[in-house]
Amino acid sequence: MRAAVYARFSSENQREQSIDDQIRVCKEFAKRDGITVLEDHIYFDEAQSGSIRSRPGLEALKKAAEDKLFEAVLVDDSSRLSRDNQHFNTLLCLFQFWGISLISVSDGLDMREEHAKVAYQFRGIINELYLTDLKKKTHRGQMGQVLRGFSVGSRGYGYTTVPEGEAKYDKKGRLRAEGFKLVVVPEEARIIQRIYRDFINGKAVTKIAKVLNDEKVPTKVKLKGGWNVSTVSRILKDEKYIGRFIWNRTTTVKDPMTGKMKQVARPKEEWVVQDRQDIRIISDDEWTAAQARWREIDGVFPRKKGKRGFEGKRKSYVESHPTHLLSGTLKCGSCGGAIALVSGKTGGYYGCLNASRRSCDNRKLIARKRLETEFVAALNEAVLNPEVLDLVYERTAQKVKEQFKHVPEELRLKKVELNRAETRIHNFVEFVASGRATPALADALAQAEEQVKTLRADVASLESSKTDLFTPPPRAWIESQVKQLNRLLAQHTEASALALRRLTGPVTLTAESPEVGRPYFRASCRFQALNLLRVADGGSNSLQWWRRRESNPGPRGVQLALVHVRSRHVPDD
């Protein structure tokens, strides 16, 4: 009888020699039983869990068995084949269908015997129970480490881990720390803070990822394509960056039909929530602003055409990502509908969208550039005066002072931590000098030196924070900036539009047609009514009438007095 051999070990912590040992046991059994082991059909999987169904070595074995290249498969024990009972039984049925005998050497089971299939059923159950018990023990150990303040699992962008506690040798002679503690990586923390600032200021997630890729900012791991939308979104929603560490939020379950693993949420009462201000990167205000921004863009139509299947009310992309200063802000005073760009080539003209559908009688249009200029001027006159800005800056300085009041205590704790890390390095050096150095010790020393470097940078940053606190700029500077408000807003249109919208709320444009004088618009917002187009002397018979679907109107038109904003009216057909 010709036979193949299959071997497997489950994790990087096990010895690679385990494969050789399993193959040796199988060959010794084959020699005693008169079975010929084919050297070309020895299959194995290294560092592969028995719960994984698709393994390279196992798949190759199945293909060869289906092609009937041998009559038997030898394994050291049945758990090497699979620890998933359903998968194990499927393999048994496949081998039986292909006419292949499965022989488990250590279990003493051979499919050629009459009652072996029943015995294999029991072995499959025992193998799976072992995996279930191992999962429980692993979870219990991880829970203990988390409760002791150590890190388990993924670190996440912005963090690294450093060994903590007394280092001891394990049973295999490797130096193991008591645990690993999360610490902030300053370079990555600055990228995270930048991502939050850009998002709060209105930059799209796709744009943030593109800029990071263009600047070749490295990711935590080498992702194909670098930064992507899911990575940036995950950073913007991770509470760990505000010092709220949550563990045991999800668990993994296996789909019984496909064998694929998926994450499912655990009940909230099983979560482990810790306040970890030592790993905070983002302030509460930045977090709140970012989550408010998520709510703003929630339900926005995708930019790509052909998308279907949305439920509920959707919002315009322009409303959450404005392309102009007043995009997504303007409302019609007649019908309450949206006012948007409806025509024009030189900057465009705003008009009521419902009027274009013949459901509103407000058919007047107003040039975008002139509206923006006059609106900002009126708002500046009514609200953004230097006296108000003086008050704003005074309150800002007070707020910053409150936010930095924790610096002295944090600086003291960082210095204590730095002293401990330097002491740890000294102990490592003494250990090396005694002649008991190992490769693992060299790695631990390198990690400790990197921790000291990081802590020194943190201490220097906190020292500077104590002295370089924010102070309001001079009054003359404030006044000069206010005078150039239009230019400043134009430099970052999307961020400026969102900031302006938060300041004013929706802006309603109401068309006024007085008996004497020319028509004008009245803008109403959160503060008060702003006369953008004031009544001028003279009649309104000089208005030039034109249709929405015609080409852009010429420069001649009504120049309304005082503010010089063109207003045009489109008559009904």
Please describe the topology of this protein:
Elements lengths: L1 E7 L8 H17 L2 E10 L10 H11 L5 E4 L9 H14 L2 E4 L4 E2 L5 H32 L11 E6 L3 E2 L5 E2 L2 E6 L1 H15 L4 H10 L14 H9 L6 E4 L2 E5 L6 E5 L6 E4 L8 H14 L19 H4 L9 E3 L6 E5 L5 E4 H4 L7 E4 H15 L3 H18 L3 H27 L5 H29 L7 H9 L1 H7 L1 H12 L2 E6 L7 E5 L4 E3 L35 E3 L4
Parallel strand pairs: 1-2, 1-3, 3-4, 14-18
Antiparallel strand pairs: 4-5, 6-9, 7-8, 10-13, 11-12, 15-16, 16-17, 17-21, 18-19, 19-20
Short description:
With 573 residues, the chain is an alpha+beta fold.
Question: What attributes characterize this protein structure?
Answer:
Rossmann fold, five-stranded mixed sheet, 21 strands, Hect, E3 ligase catalytic domain fold, 4 domains, disordered C terminus, 573 residues, alpha+beta
If you had to describe this structure to a student in words, what would you say it looks like?
The protein has 573 residues and is an alpha+beta fold. The protein folds into 4 domains: 137 residues, Rossmann fold, CATH 3.40.50.1390; 139 residues, Putative Large Serine Recombinase, Chain B, Domain 2 (Hect, E3 ligase catalytic domain fold); 158 residues, no CATH class; 80 residues. A 5-stranded mixed beta sheet has the order 2-1-3-4-5, with helices on both faces. The protein is elongated, with a radius of gyration of 35 Å. The protein starts with a strand and ends with a strand.
